């Protein structure tokens, strides 16, 4: 499943799993010097790993 949407600073998106656990993604602000770059705040339960794409290797460990 994929979702593409636009968000402004201060707006949020929630991801909720089958157990009711929530991951909150909030747009903090756009970066001034980088075109179309955003700063995000991701809040998730400790049992979730939050990993940047450039360091993610696809393994489940």
Automatic annotation (TrEMBL):
Gene3D superfamilies: Translational regulator CsrA (2.60.40.4380)
Annotated source species: Lentibacillus populi
GO biological process: mRNA catabolic process; regulation of carbohydrate metabolic process
Gene Ontology terms, MF aspect: RNA binding
Protein name: Carbon storage regulator
Record lineage: Bacteria, Bacillati, Bacillota, Bacilli, Bacillales
InterPro entries the record matches: CsrA, CsrA_sf
């Amino acid at each position: 499943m994929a979702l593409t949407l636009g968000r402004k600073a201060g707006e949020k998106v929630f991801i909720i799993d089958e157990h009711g656990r929530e991951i909150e993604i909030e747009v903090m602000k756009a970066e001034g010097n980088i075109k179309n770059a955003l700063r995000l705040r991701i809040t998730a339960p400790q049992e979730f790993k939050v990993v940047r794409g450039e360091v993610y290797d696809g393994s489940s460990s």
